[in-house]
């Protein structure tokens, strides 16, 4: 896959505007937009919005077998205590050589922005790195700057965009197992694999699963191997997972027609797997 590098270093600044201007890039445009007013606890909801041209895509926080993760930093911001970039569930995309986890057309990545003081204006300076791909993959970087006022006037259109973005996020499980009846390492046809089973009531082409490992992992994308009544079964090779520890911290994102669910779990590594590390 051919790769070009693009750096868009001039920041897009919005004074008291609800969002920045659209910043053009190869294959689309990006902007930063906020809710019109702060939440009761003083935080602001915001969003990083991508508009992509037909045939182009950008990547999830974990790109899959190939691609560039979408990441953000906020150094140089003023009166900003914390910032968290959140991600709706992606879709899997295969180019015939590898499977990636992507967004197409339009996506808004929610942001939670916590001010140090609600009595002072905050300035968010965001540097976002991402990739956009069609026939070639282009790493890009964009700087966006947005003011969070102490108080703001209602803007129903902006608030609708932000509320819709937050509504698209996976629900986070609160119980130990979530919707999963199995998350364990089992013997595969040739090598051990990570076996995952989840209760679903939908056709197999309407469900999907994505797995993120500990920092530094470069694992692939699970393969659906069986639909047994209302249970889906996936296998994932252990290639790309670190094996120099006692277990794996995993984040599982299950996608169904009823929405998506994010579940965090820890599984032990069998001794025979650790010996092969």
TrEMBL record:
Residues 37-148 form the Thiol:disulfide interchange protein DsbD N-terminal domain. It comes from the Bacteria. It holds the Pfam family DsbD_N. InterPro entries: DsbDN. This is Thiol:disulfide interchange protein DsbD N-terminal domain-containing protein. It comes from Pseudovibrio exalbescens. The lineage of its organism: Bacteria, Pseudomonadati, Pseudomonadota, Alphaproteobacteria, Hyphomicrobiales.
């Amino acid at each position: 896959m051919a790769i070009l590098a693009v750096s868009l270093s001039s920041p897009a600044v919005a004074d008291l505007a609800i969002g920045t201007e659209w910043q053009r890039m190869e294959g689309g445009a990006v902007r930063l937009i906020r809710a019109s007013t702060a939440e009761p606890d003083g935080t602001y909801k915001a969003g990083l919005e991508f508009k992509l041209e037909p045939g182009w895509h950008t990547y999830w926080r974990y790109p899959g077998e190939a691609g560039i993760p979408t990441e953000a930093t906020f150094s140089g911001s003023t009166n900003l205590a914390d910032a968290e970039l959140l991600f709706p569930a992606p879709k899997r995309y295969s180019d015939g050589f590898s499977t990636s986890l992507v967004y197409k057309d339009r996506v808004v990545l929610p942001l939670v922005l916590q001010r140090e003081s609600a009595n002072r204006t905050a300035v968010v300076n965001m540097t976002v790195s991402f990739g956009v791909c069609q026939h070639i993959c282009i790493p890009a970087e964009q700087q966006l700057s947005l003011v969070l006022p102490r108080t703001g006037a209602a803007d129903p259109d902006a608030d609708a965009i932000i509320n819709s973005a937050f509504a698209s996020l996976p629900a986070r499980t609160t119980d130990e197992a979530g919707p999963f009846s199995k998350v364990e390492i089992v013997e595969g046809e040739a090598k051990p694999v990570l076996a995952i089973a989840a209760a679903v009531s939908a056709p197999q082409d309407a469900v999907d699963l994505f797995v993120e490992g500990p920092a530094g992992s470069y694992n692939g994308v699970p393969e659906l191997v069986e639909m047994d009544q209302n249970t889906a079964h996936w296998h994932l090779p252990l290639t790309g997972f670190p094996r120099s520890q006692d277990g794996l911290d995993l984040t599982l994102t299950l996608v169904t027609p009823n929405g998506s669910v994010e579940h965090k779990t820890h599984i032990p590594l069998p001794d025979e797997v650790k010996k092969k590390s």
